[in-house]
Amino acid sequence: xxxxxxxxxxxxxxxxxxxxxxxxxxxxxxxxxxxxxxxxxxxxxxxxxxxxxxxxxxxxxxxxxxxxxxxxxxxxxxxxxxxxxxxxxxxxxxxxxxxxxxxxxxxxxxxxxxxxxxxxxxxxxxxxxxxxxxxxxxxxxxxxxxxxxxxxxxxxxxxxxx
Amino acid sequence: xxxxxxxxxxxxxxxxxxxxxxxxxxxxxxxxxxxxxxxxxxxxxxxxxxxxxxxxxxxxxxxxxxxxxxxxxxxxxxxxxxxxxxxxxxxxxxxxxxxxxxxxxxxxxxxxxxxxxxxxxxxxxxxxxxxxxxxxxxxxxxxxxxxxxxxxxxxxxxxxxxxxxxxxxxxxxxxxxxxxxxxxxxxxxxxxxxxxxxxxxxxxxxxxxxxxxxxxxxxxxxxxxxxxxxxxxxxxxxxxxxxxxxxxxxxxxxxxxxxxxxxxxxxxxxxxxxxxxxxxxxxxxxxxxxxxxxxxxxxxxxxxxxxxxxxxxxxxxxxxxxxxxxxxxxxxxxxxxxxxxxxxxxxxxxxxxxxxxxxxxxxxxxxxxxxxxxxxxxxxxxxxxxxxxxxxxxxxxxxxxxxxxxxxxxxxxxxxxxxxxxxxxxxxxxxxxxxxxxxxxxxxxxxxxxxxxxxxxxxxxxxxxxxxxxxxxxxxxxxxxxxxxxxxxxxxxxxxxxxxxxxxxxxxxxxxxxxxxxxxxxxxxxxxxxxxxxxxxxxxxxxxxxxxxxxxxxxxxxxxxxxxxxxxxx
Amino acid sequence: xxxxxxxxxxxxxxxxxxxxxxxxxxxxxxxxxxxxxxxxxxxxxxxxxxxxxxxxxxxxxxxxxxxxxxxxxxxxxxxxxxxxxxxxxxxxxxxxxxxxxxxxxxxxxxxxxxxxxxxxxxxxxxxxxxxxxxxxxxxxxxxxxxxxxxxxxxxxxxxxxxxxxxxxxxxxxxxxxxxxxxxxxxxxxxxxxxxxxxxxxxxxxxxxxxxxxxxxxxxxxxxxxxxxxxxxxxxxxxxxxxxxxxxxxxxxxxxxxxxxxxxxxxxxxxxxxxxxxxxxxxxxxxxxxxxxxxxxxxxxxxxxxxxxxxxxxxxxxxxxxxxxxxxxxxxxxxxxxxxxxxxxxxxxxxxxxxxxxxxxxxxxxxxxxxxxxxxxxxxxxxxxxxxxxxxxxxxxxxxxxxxxxxxxxxxxxxxxxxxxxxxxxxxxxxxxxxxxxxxxxxxxxxxxxxxxxx
Lengths: 162, 570, 454
Hints:
The complex is a heterotrimer of chains A (162), B (570) and C (454). Chain A is of the alpha+beta class and 162 residues long. Chain A contains seven helices and five strands. Chain A folds into two domains: 5-62, Arc Repressor Mutant, subunit A (Orthogonal Bundle); 76-156, Glutaredoxin. Chain A has helices spanning 5-14, 25-36, 41-50, 55-62, 84-88, 91-102, 144-156, and strands at residues 76-81, 108-109, 115-120, 132-134, 137-139. Chain A is elongated, with a radius of gyration of 17 Å. The model of chain A has no long low-confidence stretch (mean pLDDT 97). Chain B is α+β, with helices and mostly antiparallel strands and 570 residues long. Chain B folds into three domains: 9-107, Ubiquitin-like (UB roll) (Roll); 155-300, Alpha-Beta Plaits (2-Layer Sandwich); 310-548, Rossmann fold (3-Layer(aba) Sandwich). Chain B has 15 helices and 24 strands. Chain B starts with 8 loop residues before the first strand and ends with a helix. In chain C, a hairpin with a 2-residue loop joins strand 5 and strand 6 (239-240). Chain C starts with 21 loop residues before the first helix and ends in a 12-residue tail after the last helix. Chain C has three domains: 22-233, Rossmann fold (3-Layer(aba) Sandwich), CATH 3.40.50.11540; 241-342, Ubiquitin-like (UB roll) (Roll), CATH 3.10.20.600; 347-442, de novo design (two linked rop proteins) (Up-down Bundle), CATH 1.20.1440.230. At the A-C interface, helix 2, helix 4 and helix 5 of A face strand 3, strand 7, strand 13 and helix 14 of C.
């Protein structure tokens, strides 16, 4: 496991805050994923050992929460909200634009590894639908023009991700 | 976990009729008491596991007598009868405990609809492969579907695809498409076996039972997950496809692996045993048993099994073997190495022979590592039986004591050996050959049987009946499941015949049946006074162990055994 | 005519120059109510909250004071407070505003509440997608710690309390309080059976636990500020305080708007506050309280009797926006997520979209939800992709009826109510789609049409 020292420091600070170690499982998944991009079996086993759990305990939660990934993701993780309010505002069309622009079916990673495109469920910003998230940055009101703008920025590497 | 002390009962109203049920139990257990027709169908609930309420099959309607919130006074209807406040929604019987005056409805049209609904849901993604499923015949899903299913499918969509024929461990095979996610196996692994290797991955309809990659369900209790799986998801790799369960005869038996004495059921057909499963006994093994105990029958199917009586290593009739034995025993200087594998009845008869011949008697203690659950340190089923029958008065050592010297010095001329291998006890058989004549009782060949003057092949526990006394001094009965090899008699029968030869007054002939033998045992053995064979209950009979309280038994704490603290014994 | 908002919770949030740091908060009177609370006895605060009548803003609308009253204080075990910031009911985005724009108000509300129930540790369970909100809260907590508003011996008292911000990772079911607790314990968010696991007695780590929504906890701060009885004067009896309505969908000005309970009608909200529908469009339907609440049809008439015995006869625009009125019309105010649909909306597609959501979010623990909800999704998806059959509409209703009321948690209802209500109100559209596709199939034509909501 090749975790950054800063990640290890965060983990060491975080774990003792909880009355029960196991509670730190989800936060540790986040921290390790933020560091390494996704949660490999090695990561899962490392987290389990750190919290004195069985690997299956971590595997159970990693596969339960969609934000946790067990495979490497594209350079840009594009999440398009498809729930009702966003759909009413044209989210499916927005998603199609991304699909076509990057030749990447929703739910997969483009061949060049630039983009992972996925549908997500309601991100709680329905008043400014459609909502798209790139990395950790949220973009709202992403209709046709806005989507094209984002696509260009992704291609040119200038899009903000946090 | 459901641990209920039944000390009291409450009166509840079940579908309009009053019933007395144990206080504090849940509605499923209460309905078991009320009667078969009231039994509540369920999948996920198991009396020995935590309650999770996920299958939703056991829904019932429940109401309680109404009381005024402020004053606590009963609220009455116009006829002066206390009103019943019915819960607005059906509740799960497994997580609802009975209380005085509770009303339960088990079979309203709405509840029938609930069960039909759950059944339909469980079947939509199920492969419906009963004809090739090993669980058929003992599948709760199959049984309840016959009762609660609609008989046709309204599901026109594509079924989920999940892994099939997964090797979960050396003895357990998993079919995820049949799994109904009741989590019994997961809870068992966590709560009982304490080996947290199973879990669900993915979410919702894609939830899948699995073992973490590279890990296995390989603990010595893994097959209990197969027993408690209500469907055909977990099957025994060994028993799979061997035999349809409805062809099998079931016989109550006792596991001989250790002094725990797990209650078991032997599943056999035409003289062949197909599998062994645990039988519930809350004082002994709950509903569990070890994997290793399930395989014990295979030892008796091996090539090494002794199958004929012999004298001087030549097959002889039983009468010849007994005549030879009588001659040896009557020539004096007899030594006996007995066994805690023998049944209480065998030990009783052997004790008579020991007394009659004035033999020196010893026994060996077999000790292994305990697992804290159902495998105790004492690897014999009936050490306590030897104490009770008076065959021994103190705990045996793991090696022979004075008897060894007596044998090696030539003091002992005739040696009666049960199950033990002299070589393993550190004796050089070739040297002893000249001075000692060995009469051997055992089921399998070993170096001792090969050198013995007389050999009596013993029967397995599956081929005879009798009793053992377990770690907690519970007297437990086992029955004969299959016929013994042609022409062989139980040790009990052989010992009776020898006794009869030695001492015509012994009354041995009159003890033809176990029942009759028990007539004498109960007269002569203090602790078993007034116990009749026919009256030993299926769940065993707890004996008064006071007389042995100061003994330092080898067992450490396990599922049902708490060793006495030293301070208590002083 | 525009109607003025009456903001309580979001009073400063959108004021020019108002920032989310602690200095700005203190300049606007922040943490004064915490100081006031510390001069009160914890049980007196609980009484004020009970008197205020404030009902839970997360969805169920259960009186917060009652919830607190059920807390097992005699167990001797630690007591925990959890702020439910999982905001995951589709159509709801009010907690996001509080967290982003006024995090200290929430922290003050949490500390007041924690002190009232004597919790020494509080958690904010925030949905994983709120990356920015998480950072804002983390910073705010450190600011508050620096000023001794939280941590050890708060404000020099002998009371100590810490707050841990705990991130979710994309599971709607974490909004259900026992699912949230399981998640916080490091497990799959499978809701627990109740009984026996009522959080007030057997919650986090099997200890007494109170779980309250973000907005509810902010309300507590205001209850302390003005007193329970004064707070109860906002709104109507049984529907006290303000509500933040989150309007989305086909209106000119979607957004969040705060009004006293019953201080506005649905019609006023749509037409006066949100500027009405898009040009040339007519109102078709409204989902008034998050996607699980039952849908209302634009041309329905709602009649019946109120609790006080008076009769009502409302069109959709007349419905007062409060807890009781929305339940009188057969729906609920839920989490305050109002989704507006105009006459361009294909109701089969809209339901397919909702069913997709619930099938994706079912935790999979109990049978009816795990199997039934994806089944409904499969049916409605098929109906939208050209495979509709006439029997589908009855089948859908039957499947939904087999789920609601029979599951471990309220997700069963949340997933069934949309199906039941869409079919009750728009059965004709479902049947028409099936007939139309049957005809096309008969003529050998392609039945798959372009969809926009699924």
